[in-house]
Write a structure and sequence with these properties.
With about 500 residues, the chain is mainly alpha-helical. It folds into two domains: about 230 residues, no CATH class; about 240 residues, no CATH class. The chain is about 85% helix and about 0% strand. It has 18 helices and no strands. The chain starts with a helix and ends with a helix. The model has no long low-confidence stretch (mean pLDDT about 85).
């Protein structure tokens, strides 16, 4: 349990630091580059995410296999050979992805994006650089998965903090002092990706126990993992279609400037993603180990406690942002136009993202049991139903309509996937998840933050708005933590320790 707490703390540190870097530097990027170039960065982000289709489930497979094998005896050489085998495949796929992006750059520049100020040649050069950056960035997920499976989150997040600082500060300085161009921005991304990947490769191999023989490519190792990897690949492909098709469609249908506003709203809405991925990355390896040793009682306890913790972690932030989007955007960007164009999108998108985050630990439980078919077929149905709906809503209702599809999609996950999952895994735990793990913290968040929304009166000076948001956020988090069993017990335990320390003096 101490290791889990340590890993969660490390993951929080890494994700919070990344969020702070974005909070500081994204407004500067928009100021130096303009909204059209920011739209290109949004397309680049979507392309990076879509390149996960070519991951073929290998990152998640490596994560699971490192966690599973590390709990067994005398598997050191197998672990090293598995990393080498998947590593060779992964780098081949990454190079292929970069070549595809570079080859498509003329078509995208001249026939896809709708720019008013940027020339097609500048856009083409930007996409060529994107291809190089994607090739170098893709393996980051693979090596990170290996370190997470070994439960080396402290080391991983030290690398994340260092490279994200270098990425953000370096890009800001280059745009300010050297060249305020999109090409300079992407050249710096390439440099940082080389550094990031180098350190991840080095530290993963150093953390693997040395074997008697050199690590080698072993085709037969794929036979033991291909079913899980294929299932994860299918889930990943379908999930990426669901989460990125809105950007692909809107990048074609909207002017580049308007797509930039949507990108900004999406970044704000997914800013809480670092919170639930931090918990997922820490809990998933432990769930896998508990399944491997068949400790059902500990599995149930960890599952519900982590789900409650997840709710307390993400719901207060999501509800506050959803109710105060205009105020938050204005404080952050100092641009009334940007706040006006993006605030409604932020409210809708972040509600969908919060529901998506609540499903991360049920998904981790499925993966711990090696059960990928539920998520796969769920996403198949979702793609069939929602991708045509995204196209329709984009055509008739624009960005707001597309954002609404994201919300409805995740409502469907919460309502339908949980009952199906608990018929097979942790039977009879369904209602405890709905009522204790989710419903109580959700109602408390809406009640407290909703009162704060009602009480706010007109325009206030910015320092007063900031103070008001801090107070409402603190009240929402505190009240939710007190009314949720696992965090209430933790708070009382900490108070008892304080009382014991000071009472003994």
């Amino acid at each position: 349990m101490k290791l889990i707490k340590k890993n969660i703390a490390a993951n929080f540190a890494g994700n919070i630091w990344q969020a702070l870097i974005g909070l500081i530097f994204i407004p500067l990027y928009m100021k130096f580059l303009g909204m059209e170039c920011w739209g290109l960065i949004g397309i680049f982000t979507a392309m990076q995410t879509m390149s996960g289709i070519l991951d073929l489930g290998m990152s998640n497979t490596l994560n699971r296999e490192m966690a599973r094998l590390s709990a067994l005896q005398d598997r050191e050489q197998e672990m090293r050979n598995l990393v080498r085998t998947l590593e060779v495949i992964y780098w081949s796929v990454a190079v292929f992805a970069g070549i595809v992006v570079a080859a498509l750059s003329p078509f995208i520049a001249h026939h896809w994006v709708k720019a008013e100020q940027l020339s097609p040649k500048s856009i083409e050069h930007a996409f060529l650089l994107m291809g190089f950056a994607i090739t170098l960035q893709m393996p980051v997920g693979f090596y990170s998965g290996g370190l997470m499976g070994l439960q080396r989150q402290v080391l991983l997040n030290a690398i994340i903090i260092s490279t994200s600082t270098l990425r953000g500060v370096g890009a800001g300085l280059i745009l300010w002092l050297v060249s305020p161009t999109i090409q300079a921005y992407f050249l710096w991304q390439i440099v940082v990706s080389i550094i990031n990947t180098f350190f991840l490769v080095m530290f993963l191999w150093r953390r693997l126990s040395p074997g008697d023989n050199k690590a080698v490519f072993q085709k037969q190792l794929l036979k033991g993992i291909w079913r899980f990897s294929a299932g994860m690949s299918g889930i990943t492909i379908l999930a990426l279609i669901l989460t990125q098709s809105d950007k692909i469609i809107l990048s074609k249908m909207l002017p580049l400037k308007m797509f930039g506003y949507y990108t900004l709203a999406w970044i704000v809405a997914t800013s809480i993603g670092g919170l639930f991925t931090a918990v997922f990355s820490s809990i998933y390896p432990r769930l896998t180990q508990l399944v491997s040793i068949n400790d059902q009682d500990e599995l149930k306890r960890l599952y519900h406690e982590s789900c409650q913790f997840m709710s307390v972690l993400i719901l207060p932030a999501a509800i506050v942002i959803a109710l105060f989007p205009n105020e938050i955007l204005l404080l952050w960007t100092q641009n009334p136009t940007t706040a006006q164009e993006s605030h409604l999108l932020v409210s809708i998108l972040i509600c969908g993202t919060a529901l998506n985050g609540l499903m991360y630990l049920p998904y981790a439980l499925q993966l711990a049991f090696g059960w990928t078919s539920l998520s796969f077929f769920k996403n198949v149905i979702a793609v069939i139903l929602f991708v045509p709906l995204i196209i329709y809503m984009a055509a008739y209702y624009g960005a707001v309509g597309v954002a609404s599809v994201w919300l409805v999609l995740n409502m469907g996950y919460v309502l339908f996937e949980i009952p199906i999952m608990h018929r097979r895994l942790l039977h009879k735990e369904k209602w405890r998840w709905y009522l204790q793990d989710v419903f109580i913290p959700l109602v408390v968040c809406i009640f407290v933050a909703g009162i704060g929304r009602i009480l706010i009166r007109g325009l206030m000076p910015q320092y007063m708005t900031l103070l008001y948001l801090i107070i409402i956020s603190a009240l929402t988090v505190g009240t939710t933590a007190i009314t949720t069993p696992v965090t209430r017990a933790w708070l009382f335990m900490q108070l008892s320790k304080i009382k014991l320390v000071y009472g003994g003096k």
